[in-house]
UniProtKB/TrEMBL annotation:
InterPro entries associated with the record: Biotin_BS (IPR001882), Biotin_Carboxyl_Carrier/Decarb (IPR050709), Biotin_lipoyl (IPR000089), Single_hybrid_motif (IPR011053)
SUPFAM superfamilies in alphabetical order: Single hybrid motif
PROSITE patterns for this protein: BIOTIN, BIOTINYL_LIPOYL
All copies of domain Lipoyl-binding, residue ranges: 1-62
Entry-linked CDD domains: biotinyl_domain
Keyword ATP-binding in annotation: no
This protein's record includes keyword Isomerase: no
Key words of the record: Biotin
Protein name as catalogued: Lipoyl-binding domain-containing protein
Organism the protein comes from: Tetragenococcus osmophilus
Amino acid sequence: MPGNIFKVLAQPGQSVKEGETVVVLEAMKMENEIVAPADGTISAVHVKEGQSVEADDVLFEL
């Protein structure tokens, strides 16, 4: 969904579990937690706090 990146909680090289919040996206004045779809290691984060994103933008790579 389009919105602004409110907070980036994961960094490249960090291990995450399925369902762990990686990015918080603010859209329509609501904070939406974007979670890891599976266990793994974050290989790249493509956004920074305050950045605007569109619906199909890649936010991070697992």
